[in-house]
């Protein structure tokens, strides 16, 4: 099956810092989503981004499908950004998402 | 209610019990999913239903039995579980454009809050 690798696995930031999370995938995809999982387990949709660049407030994401990677940028981080960030992809011809192992982000005041 | 809801949010059961998890989506979608998230493992797919038919089954033990009576409701029936089945069970839904040959179907998935299951 398709492999999804996220880096770094853990990240500690001071409030106000910027960060970049990376997602590499091993095959062609027609769906890529970024999620934030809060401490209660809820997966919150951040971006649906199979290709191109999108921005939503302090967050932005870029997917280069031909090179099989996506980046999530967090600017001016806040303590509420803490949690686990997942990248998930849908392989062409499949319905379900395959998730990476996540990046655990801790933003310290 | 909006989005995807799941009940119960927490469940503790013995290995001989029978229980059911319920998921309901209020988004008008036609595909629903069960995922399992165990400690220190990536989320993994269990079942996919599209237009109320099971279309994917990820080699899940028979002690987990899904049911999709209509496009808005999905159940996961549990019986004779093992302690290693303790996990967060997440339901999701999407609009699946079944029957098309388009390679860029937008089927963004939306997740419920999950049921945290503990098997004693």
Number of domains of chain A: 1
Structural class of the helix and strand makeup of chain B?
mainly beta
Strand tally of chain B, please? 11
DSSP helix count of chain B? 0
Structural key phrases:
heterodimer, A: 109 residues, six-stranded mixed beta sheet, five-stranded antiparallel beta sheet, 11 strands, B: mainly beta, 0% helix
A few lines on this structure:
Chain A is mainly beta. Chain A has strands at 4-7, 10-14, 19-25, 29-37, 43-48, 52-56, 59-64, 69-74, 83-91, 98-99, 103-108.
What's the topology here?
The complex is a heterodimer of chains A (109) and B (120).
Chain A: E1 4-7, E2 10-14, E3 19-25, E4 29-37, E5 43-48, E6 52-56, E7 59-64, E8 69-74, E9 83-91, E10 98-99, E11 103-108
Parallel strand pairs in A: 2-11
Antiparallel strand pairs in A: 1-3, 3-8, 4-5, 4-9, 6-7, 7-8, 9-10, 9-11
Chain B: E1 4-7, E2 10-13, E3 18-25, E4 31-37, E5 44-50, E6 53-57, E7 64-70, E8 73-79, E9 87-94, E10 110-111, E11 115-119
Can you walk me through this structure?
The complex is a heterodimer of chains A (109) and B (120). Chain A has 109 residues and is an all-beta fold. Chain A has a single domain, classed as Sandwich (Immunoglobulin-like). In chain A, the strands form 2 sheets. In chain A, strands 2, 4, 5, 9, 10 and 11 form a 6-stranded mixed beta sheet that branches. In chain A, strands 1-3-8-7-6 form a 5-stranded antiparallel beta sheet, with no helix packed on it. The model of chain A has no long low-confidence stretch (mean pLDDT 95). Chain B has no helices and 11 strands. In chain B, strands 2, 4, 5, 6, 9, 10 and 11 form a 7-stranded mixed beta sheet that branches. Helices cover 0% and strands 53% of the residues of chain B. Chains A and B meet through strand 4, strand 5, strand 9 and strand 10 of A and strand 4, strand 5, strand 9 and strand 10 of B.
């Amino acid at each position: 099956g398709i492999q999804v690798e996220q880096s770094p696995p853990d990240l500690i930031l001071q409030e106000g810092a910027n960060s970049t999370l990376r997602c590499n995938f091993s095959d062609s995809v027609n769906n890529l989503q970024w999620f934030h999982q809060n401490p209660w387990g809820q997966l919150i949709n951040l971006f649906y981004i199979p290709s191109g660049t999108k921005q939503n407030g302090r967050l932005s994401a870029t997917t280069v499908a031909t090179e099989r990677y996506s980046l999530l940028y967090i600017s001016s981080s806040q303590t509420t950004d803490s949690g686990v960030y997942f990248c998930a992809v849908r392989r062409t011809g499949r319905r379900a998402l395959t998730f990476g192992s996540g990046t655990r982000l801790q933003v310290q005041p | 209610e909006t989005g995807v809801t799941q009940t119960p949010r927490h469940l503790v059961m013995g290995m001989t019990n029978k229980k059911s998890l319920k998921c309901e989506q209020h988004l008008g979608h036609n595909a629903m999913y069960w995922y399992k998230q165990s400690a220190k493992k990536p989320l993994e797919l269990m079942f996919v239903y599209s237009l109320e038919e099971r279309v994917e089954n990820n080699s899940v033990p028979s002690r987990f039995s899904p049911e999709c009576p209509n496009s808005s409701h999905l159940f996961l029936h549990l019986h004779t579980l093992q302690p290693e089945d303790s996990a967060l069970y997440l339901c999701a839904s999407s609009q699946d454009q079944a029957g098309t040959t388009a390679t860029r179907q937008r089927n963004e998935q939306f997740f419920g809050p999950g049921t945290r299951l503990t098997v004693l």
